Amino acid sequence: MRRLAFITLVLCVSAALPAAAAQSRASVRGYRLAVARCSTCHAVERTGSSPNPKSPLFRDLSAIYEEHSLQEKLTDIEESGHYDMPPMRLHSNEISDLVAYMNRLGQASPRRPRGTPAGL
Length: 120
Known about the structure:
Low-confidence stretches: 108-116
Distance between the termini: 42 Å
Largest sheet: none
């Protein structure tokens, strides 16, 4: 019985590892995209304030929006902009990467993926 429980546990953990690794890679790509395309207005790190005081902090966005809503909001911004923010050409996979990064920022005790800056 113990052996069966152990095997089941190992199989469950093994199945979850590829998904976690993919999510981690997506958040790293999202971080890089945020720094390159968003950091002129938004604070994209765990600390600091936004260069544009009207721009929300990335670390707050996952608390404001659920993942699906955040995906929709970024898609809307991509198409038509938002307030003072102009439309920004983003691929759907780039939007997914930004969402993964913002969600990672919103986690209480994140583990930083290898090769990413301390702010991530």
